[in-house]
């Protein structure tokens, strides 16, 4: 790795991340801090600017007590300051004009370009249920990843989790029919005992240069 790479603070943040197992149970995050993490998360890319995601911040004792049993009682759910239920929304291309309106108003794109986005998006997704769902999962995952690295840059730990009863989460937290609970993401201050970043496969094993 080059010296320039090693000295880059963004890269150092990414490479220093590891899933957090032990959280400081007494540490909290303010609603403003939680809001800021999601604001950063929603800067992640989405197809056709759909922004088809939603984040439910489970941070009260009462809400954690509801989530814990349907998330296999994983300690991170109750120990971390907040656990996000990261939801992807099945693609609905009818929202594209509204999503693009701020870009048109800001002069970023001409109004005539809006149907040039909406029509191909409709053709790509709306007759294909699996593509609509796949895109919901991709979008939510991009947003969660941005939150993970934002949290790390702020000195916080995070734990992405797929161990939960999706149907129960859907019912208990009032998800819409078009929403998919993609993952849980715990975020909070760490306490001692967490692992350092784990070694990964050699790049040569996963990269083909063609």
From TrEMBL:
UniProt superkingdom: Bacteria
Keyword Oxidoreductase belongs to the record: yes
Domain Nitroreductase, chain residue ranges per copy: 14-188
InterPro entries: Nitroreductase (IPR029479), Nitroreductase-like (IPR000415)
This protein's record includes keyword Cell cycle: no
One Pfam match: Nitroreductase
Keyword annotations from UniProtKB, A to Z: Oxidoreductase
GO function term, MF aspect, one: oxidoreductase activity
PANTHER family from the UniProt entry: NAD(P)H NITROREDUCTASE YDGI-RELATED
Family under the similarity heading: Belongs to the nitroreductase family.
Protein name from the UniProt record: NAD(P)H nitroreductase
Native source organism of the sequence: Bordetella flabilis
Lineage of producing organism: Bacteria, Pseudomonadati, Pseudomonadota, Betaproteobacteria, Burkholderiales
């Amino acid at each position: 790795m080059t010296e320039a790479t090693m000295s880059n603070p963004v890269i150092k943040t990414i490479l220093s991340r590891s899933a957090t197992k032990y959280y400081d149970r007494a540490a909290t995050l303010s609603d403003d801090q939680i809001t800021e993490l999601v604001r950063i998360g929603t800067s992640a890319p989405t197809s056709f600017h759909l922004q088809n995601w939603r984040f439910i911040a489970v941070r009260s004792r009462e809400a954690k007590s509801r989530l814990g049993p349907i998330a296999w009682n994983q300690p991170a759910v109750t120990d971390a300051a907040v656990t996000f239920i990261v939801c992807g929304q099945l693609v609905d291309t009818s929202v594209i004009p509204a999503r693009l309106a701020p870009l048109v108003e800001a002069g970023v794109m001409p109004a005539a370009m809006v149907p040039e986005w909406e029509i191909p998006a409709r053709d790509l997704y709306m007759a294909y249920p699996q593509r609509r769902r796949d895109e919901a999962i991709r979008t939510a995952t991009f947003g969660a990843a941005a939150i993970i690295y934002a949290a790390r840059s702020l000195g916080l730990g995070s734990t992405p989790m797929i161990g939960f009863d999706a149907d129960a989460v859907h019912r208990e937290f009032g998800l819409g029919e078009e929403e998919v609970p993609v993952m849980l993401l715990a975020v909070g201050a760490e306490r001692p005992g967490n692992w350092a970043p784990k070694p990964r496969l050699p790049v040569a094993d996963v990269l083909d240069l063609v």
